[in-house]
Amino acid sequence: MPRLLCTIVFLFSLPAFAADNFGPRLEGFDYPFPIEQFQMESQGQQLEMAYMDIQPETPNGQTVLLMHGKNFCAATWEGTIHFLTDNGYRVIAADQIGFCKSSKPEHYQFSFHQLSSNTSALLEHLAIESYIIMGHSMGGMLATRHALLNPEKVEQLVMVNPIGLEDWLAKGVPYRTIDDWYQNELKTNADSIRQYQQNTYYAGSWEPGYDRWVKMQAGMFNGSGKEIVAWNSALTYDMVITQPVFYEFENLQVPTLLLIGEKDNTAVGKNMAPEDKRAELGNYPKISLEVADRIPDATLVTFEDLGHSPQIQDPERFHQTLIEHLLKR
């Protein structure tokens, strides 16, 4: 009896949000569709880019390329992939180099131009010549850069709560060195991820279904190889904050759809900004409207009650809105 009592006490003393231990390339975390590895040479080294290539049962002849965010992976597009393939679209969802199931090089010059080039190499490998591109969060910055570089191939650009609708350094966020980012990222755990997402992405609300994506991200920081995960995260944070696409929205030559959850208040480095500047950062109702006015052929659709990931918060409403606008083109 005492032994049983000790066991019960131990179980109840576990942390409220325990993370799994995944490898640096998300070993042990299952994706919703089969993963393939694109072998590529970049910056003098052999790398692997993980991707899912999902074919519809009844093809409509169109392809959608999905780009994940900084704290997300290709797997987080799961519901959107099901929806798009059910509607006849072929879907390519890749993990960018430095993220999730793809290679995490120790030495790499990360840039949105480089990630765009990597993606172009994958599409060439798959013999895909034209496509719709949809990017979420950081993926919106990358998708914008890719559309600027490949206007003849991109049929339509869709941005889902993209970061980069403002220049944070210009708005008062202080520069943080890569070494400082690295030390900060080493502290990442499931509780800190969950708290950040709850406060920043979902305006204080939370649903049990979100926990899977927290555990996915936290598992890389909690397992073997967490140092290389933290290092790549630091390198890509530097890329995000020092390479704004903010000044080039006027140059977009493709039809652009902005799908914005207005409860979002994401802004990289906001916690480091002077207190009097913080309220100005991540104001999505304001900055999305300003950017939409600057894009030559833009449509802005807002969800006033949703946050950073409307495709996860309210997939039915989000996907219905998405397909209506895709079919208009």
From TrEMBL:
SUPFAM superfamilies named in the record: alpha/beta-Hydrolases
Keyword Signal: yes
Enzyme type, top EC level: hydrolase
A GO CC annotation given for this chain: membrane
Keyword Signal: yes
Signal peptide start and end residues: 1-18
E.C. numbers: 3.8.1.5
Entry-linked Pfam families: Abhydrolase_1 (PF00561)
Alphabetized UniProt keyword annotations: Hydrolase, Signal
Example GO BP: acylglycerol catabolic process
Domain of life where this protein originates: Bacteria
PANTHER family reported for this sequence: HYDROLASE, PUTATIVE (AFU_ORTHOLOGUE AFUA_2G14860)-RELATED, MONOACYLGLYCEROL LIPASE
Protein name: Haloalkane dehalogenase
Organism: Methylophaga muralis
Lineage of the species this protein comes from: Bacteria, Pseudomonadati, Pseudomonadota, Gammaproteobacteria, Thiotrichales
